[in-house]
Amino acid sequence: MLEEVDTSPSDKRTLWFVTQNDHKYQEARRSLDPFGIKIRKLASPKTEIQSTDLGDIAKFAAKEAARKHNRTVVVEDSGLFIRALNGFPGPYSSYIHATIGVEGLLHLMNQKRRREAYFQASLAVSSPKATSQEFSGRVNGTISHKSAGKQGFGFDPIFVPKDTRKTFAEGGSQFKDRYSHRAIAFRKLALWYIKTKVQTRNQFCRPAEP
Ligand code: IMP
Q1: Which is the closest atom of ligand 1 to the Cα of 180?
Q2: Is residue 86 classed as helix, strand or coil in its secondary structure?
Q3: Which of 22, 33, 56, 77 is an active site residue?
Q4: What confidence tens digit (pLDDT) does each residue in 82-115 have?
Q5: Which residues contact 9 (CB under 8 A, 6 or more apart)?
Q6: pLDDT recorded at residue 207
Q7: Is the CB of 24 under 6 A from ligand 1?
């Protein structure tokens, strides 16, 4: 079932995150909060083009959503890349999660000694005038031998970030915010956003030429 679309009027200072995944939205909100940046959820369906490049997938959807909703939007595309499976499921992660799921992926990893993997998140910010910016974040780690933990979503129960001993699903939200690909990408976005806003403000506040 589709979540209700937030149709509140656009406000130039609000960033709208086009997603139907509340976990992603909450993670984004927590990452931007320390920077004083407010983000709101636009639970509208988005177009997912066929591509192996997460950035291209996010950029296409962001441009389209910005035009359609006449506001500045953020779109994220993310995936889990497993070395022993040559990067699979990568851009197909949501389909693989919906079909074979966590247990199916663990099954594919049976007998695999090398268990390195990474999560990547690519963000695209787009305005109705079609300007766009991209940010990405990556977290390296390993695929556990069995599913562990109940928090989070997707492949959180089988991903152990590098230099730690628990899965994202065991660690919970603070742990996730500390290590996740999404938190890294949203922090990059925050630094850019603040810089852009300060520059824009300075243009208007500059003293008049003598
Ligand atoms: P999409 O970005 O909506 O195409 O979905 C990416 C898929 O990758 C999700 O459905 C999850 O299965 C997986 N994924 C992406 N990020 C995470 C994460 O932070 N934790 C667990 N799974 C994730």
Answers
A1: 19
A2: coil
A3: 77
A4: 999 999 999 999 999 999 999 999 999 999 999 9
A5: none
A6: 55
A7: no
Residue type for position 98: A
| Residue 78 CA, ligand 1 centroid: distance in Å | 5
Return the ligand 1 atom nearest residue 27 CA: 19
- For 116, the 3-state DSSP assignment is strand
* CA 77 from centroid of its chain's CA atoms: 6
27 lines ligand 1 (CB under 6 A): no
77 is catalytic: yes
For the entire predicted model, the pTM comes to: 0.90
CATH entry, 15-199, from 3.30.70.100, 3.90.950.10, 3.40.50.720, 3.30.160.40: 3.90.950.10
pLDDT tens digits, one per residue of 140-188: 999 999 999 999 999 999 999 999 999 999 999 999 999 999 999 999 9
Does ligand 1 lie within 6 Å of residue 59's CB atom?
A: no
How far apart (Å, rounded) are the C-alpha atoms in residues 28 and 6? 17
Q: Where is 191: in which H helix or E strand?
A: helix 181-205
Give 72 Cα–ligand 1 centroid separation in angstroms: 23
DSSP state at residue 15: E
